[in-house]
Write a structure and sequence with these properties.
Elements (H helix, E strand, L loop, with lengths): L5 E7 L3 H12 L7 E7 L10 E2 L3 E7 L6 H10 L5 E4 L5 E2 L3 H12 L3 E10 L2 E5 L8 H6 L11 E3 H8 L12 H12 L2 E13 L10 H14 L1 H4 L2 H18 L2 H14 L4 H10 L5 H10 L5
Parallel strand pairs: 1-2, 1-5, 2-4, 7-10
Antiparallel strand pairs: 3-4, 5-9, 6-10, 7-8, 7-9
């Protein structure tokens, strides 16, 4: 078995302590090949003191030269990298030491272009294990369910597949929301995937909600974009119900009760079992706050 060189793309903005922990976990990989961490600063001044090179482990610091946001930053990192394999890591996540070695071995064994692993989700003092199943990672499966366990910090892909088959991260998605979901849907359509069925990433979820939980209109616009882009959503009533339920919740979180009720009805028209619609109605009526719902979901290692 060979050990192809790996470039790990880390988009960042203003979390220096967490970023350093992520970099330590990447440079500390028990992997025989060269590992390059490409830190891409998005809309902020880069910390060039992070640059490092000892031959088989190095850090490159650059800036997002494309569309501002996560998608553009990730694509900028790919363009500025040299590895035969590409990997991605959020700046607040860390890898277990055997992550790359296990994924590279699985890719070579199965002839796969893309590899994923399971994750540990850290939320306060709670830790949840989430492991995606390969049968979920089909176009039909990913359309029906975003598969939160298929986290982008686990992705490893051959450069040739990223460049020539799947394509770059979509920079037109509003706010880069769901850019990993869109990319994985395209990967499932065009390449062979493999899963290492072990949690090999520590994913940190921050109390008080993620950035996206405070950008509900962006989420609504991004969901509309994804439905228009991927015909598979409109072919699956359960998938549409899920999307409409998410829109209903977002409108409820914004305090737009009329729109929340409208999209909850649309969700239930597609599927009477869509729970997000009922939750959205409860939020719209003031029975529970959107923040409380998000906190409960995150504590269980889930999102809305």
């Amino acid at each position: 078995m060979t050990s192809p060189s790996v470039s790990v793309i880390i988009a960042t903005r203003d979390r220096p302590a967490l970023l350093r922990a992520a970099l330590d976990s990447i440079l500390g990989q028990e992997y025989a090949g060269n590992v390059e961490a490409v830190v891409v600063y998005d809309q902020t001044t880069p910390d060039t003191s992070l640059a490092f090179d000892n031959g088989d482990r190095r850090i490159t610091v650059t800036t997002n030269t494309r569309t501002p946001g996560l998608a553009g930053a990730r694509n900028s990192g790919v363009l500025g990298s040299s590895g035969e394999l590409l990997a991605f890591c959020d700046d607040d996540d860390t890898w277990l030491p055997d992550k790359l070695a296990l994924q590279a071995a699985a890719m070579q064994r199965d002839g796969a272009d893309v590899a994923l692993t399971g994750i540990y989700v850290y939320y306060g003092d709670r830790v949840t294990v989430r492991i995606p199943e390969l049968q979920e990672l089909t176009v039909a499966g990913l359309t029906r369910d975003r598969v939160m366990a298929a986290h982008p910090s686990t992705y490893v892909v051959t450069r040739s597949a990223f460049t020539n088959t799947i394509g770059p991260v979509d920079e037109n998605i509003p706010g880069s929301y769901g850019e990993d979901w869109d990319w994985l849907l395209r990967a499932a359509q065009t390449t062979q995937l493999v899963v290492v069925p072990r949690p090999l990433i520590r994913v940190l979820w921050h109390k008080g909600g993620s950035l996206f939980s405070r950008r509900w209109m962006t989420i609504i616009e991004a969901l509309d974009y994804l439905v228009d882009k991927h015909p598979s959503f409109k072919e699956d009533p359960q998938a549409l119900a899920r999307i409409y339920g998410q829109k209903a919740f977002a409108y409820a979180a914004l305090g737009e009760r009329k729109e929340a009720r409208r999209w909850a009805r649309e969700a239930l028209r597609q599927s009477r079992s869509e729970r997000r619609a009922y939750v959205a109605l409860a939020v719209a009526r003031g029975v529970v706050s959107a923040e409380r719902v998000m906190s409960m979901a995150n504590a269980a290692g889930r999102g809305i």
